[in-house]
Each structure stands twice: as structure tokens, then as C-alpha cells.
């Protein structure tokens, strides 16, 4: 099963924080995005399609996706100019 994860653009966070602060904040020592992807895999996902805003910090995203927790799952990230609708 392919899992589609769409990250909000910077203006869609709703709490005044940046998208980087939200998805890379650590929850029990693991970045939130890594946890979300790992949960999707645990629920039966075999492939991840990640739609992200172009403004997202590329090095932080790469570090998050290179986690040993995600080594067994293919994750394809697509940068979008506008938020996914």
C-alpha cells in the first residue's frame, strides 16, 4: 500500500510556528515526521510519497528520512510550489 503524506505550507501551521519547528520537533527523542512515517509503515504502508513545500529545510528533511527506523521503506519526497489540495 502506498501512503501519501502531505506537509502543510508555512502559512498553514495554525499556531504561528514554522513548518520546520512542527515536523522536526522531537517526540520521545524522535522527530515527529519520522514517527508519522514509521507509524504508517507499521500500519501496512509499503511505500511513502511525501509532498512537501519547497521552503522546507532540505538538510533537516534528508537527515530525518535517513533514519534507521525508515531504512526498510522507500520514501519519495516531492517539492511543491503550492500546498497540496
List keywords for this structure.
alpha/beta; single chain; 85 residues
Output the structural class: alpha/beta
Describe the global form.
Answer: globular
Number of helices: 3
Instruction: Report the count of strand segments.
Output: 5
Rg calc: 12 Å
The H/E string reads EHEEHEHE
In percent, how much strand structure appears in the residues? 25-35%
Proportion in helices: 25-40%
Low-confidence stretches: none
Q: End-to-end distance, in Å?
A: 21 Å
The largest beta-sheet arranges its strands as 1-4-5
Quick one: biggest sheet?
Answer: 3 strands, parallel
Whole-number average pLDDT?
83
How would you portray this structure in words?
With 85 residues, this protein is an alpha/beta fold. The protein has helices at residues 19-24, 32-42, 58-65, and strands spanning 2-6, 26-27, 30-31, 47-53, 75-80. A hairpin with a 2-residue loop joins strand 2 (26-27) and strand 3 (30-31).
Amino acid at each position: 500500500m502506498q501512503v501519501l503524506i502531505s506537509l502543510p505550507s508555512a502559512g498553514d501551521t495554525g499556531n504561528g510556528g514554522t513548518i520546520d519547528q512542527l515536523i522536526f520537533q522531537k517526540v520521545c527523542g524522535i522527530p515527529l515526521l519520522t514517527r508519522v512515517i514509521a507509524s504508517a509503515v507499521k500500519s501496512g504502508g509499503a511505500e511513502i510519497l511525501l509532498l512537501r513545500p519547497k521552503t522546507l529545510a532540505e538538510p533537516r528533511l534528508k537527515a530525518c528520512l535517513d533514519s534507521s527506523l525508515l531504512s526498510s521503506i522507500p520514501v519519495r519526497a516531492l517539492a511543491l510550489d503550492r500546498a497540496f489540495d
